Known about the structure:
By secondary structure, the protein is an all-alpha fold. The chain has one domain. 77% of the residues lie in helices and 0% in strands. The chain contains four helices and no strands. Helix 3 runs antiparallel to helix 4. The longest helix is centred in the first third of the chain and has 20 residues, at 3-22. It is globular, with a radius of gyration of 14 Å. It starts with a helix and ends with a helix. The mean pLDDT is 93.
Amino acid sequence: MNTIDLEKEIKKKLREQKDKEYGDYKENMGLIAFLWSVILKDKLKSDVKPYEAANMMVMLKMLRTTRKYKADTYLDASIYLDMARDLHKED
Length: 91
């Protein structure tokens, strides 16, 4: 197994674990997008889409990389980016 396959397998297992813990990521990103749209309703021209919510989570993780090093921050950012890609393809 090469490094890329190993990383994919790790991300797949982690995503499955997070889905069990927190529920389906597609549903969750949809809910996050909805809630952000409600909060920002007077500032937005249109609602936040689920893939945009996932992209904003990537940005949150990227901000965290400017602080103390934590390996899973990079893994989390990568997983959120995968989610954003999948959700954007479906949009």
